[in-house]
Amino acid sequence: MTLIGQFRDWLINFMPEWAAYIVAFLVGVVAIIAFVLVMIIVFIYLERRLIGRFQVRLGPNRCGPEGIFQLIADSIKLLTKEDIVPAKGDFWVHFLAPIVTFAPALMVFAVVPFHKGVVLTDLDVGILYVVAISSISVVGIYMAGWGSNNKYSLIAALRAVAQAISYELPVVMAAVGVILIAGSLSLSKIVEAQTIPFFLLQPLGFFIFLLGSMAEINRSPFDLLEAESEIVTGYNMEYSGMKFGLLYLSEYGHTLAASCIITTLFLGGWQGPLLPPFLWFLIKVLLVFFVFLWVRSTVPRLRVDQLMAFAWKCLLPMALINLLLIGAQVLWFPKALPWGMMVVNFAVAGILILLWSRLFALGGGRVEV
Amino acid sequence: MALRTEPFVLNIGPQHPSSHGLFRLEVTLDGEVVTGLELVLGYLHRGIEKLAEGRTYIQNIPLTDRLDYLASMTNNFAYVLAVEKLAGIEVPERTEYLRVIMAELMRISSHLSFIGFLLNELGAYFTPLFYMFREREKILDLFEMVCGQRLTYNYMRIGGVSQDIPEEFLPAVKRFVAEMPRLVDEYEQLLSGNEILLARTKGVGILPRDKAINASASGPVLRASGVKWDIRKVDPYSVYDRFDFEVPVGSVGDVYDRYWVRVSEMRQSVRILEQALKQLPKGEVWTKVPGLLRPLRGEVYGHIEGPKGELGFYLVSDNSIAPYRFHIRPPALLNLTALKDMVVGWKLADAIVIFGSLDTVLGEVDR
Amino acid sequence: MRFERYGIGIIKGLMVTMKNFLRPPITLQYPEEKLITSRRIRGNELVWQVSKCTGCATCAKSCPQGNIEIVTHLGTENNYVVDKLQVDTGKCMFCGLCVESCPYEALFMGRSYERATYRRRELVLSKEALELSEDRQPSGYFYPRIEVLLPRQTLLLYWDREDGQKLCWFPWRKKANRGRR
Question: What is the value of pTM for the model shown?
Answer without folding.
Answer: 0.87
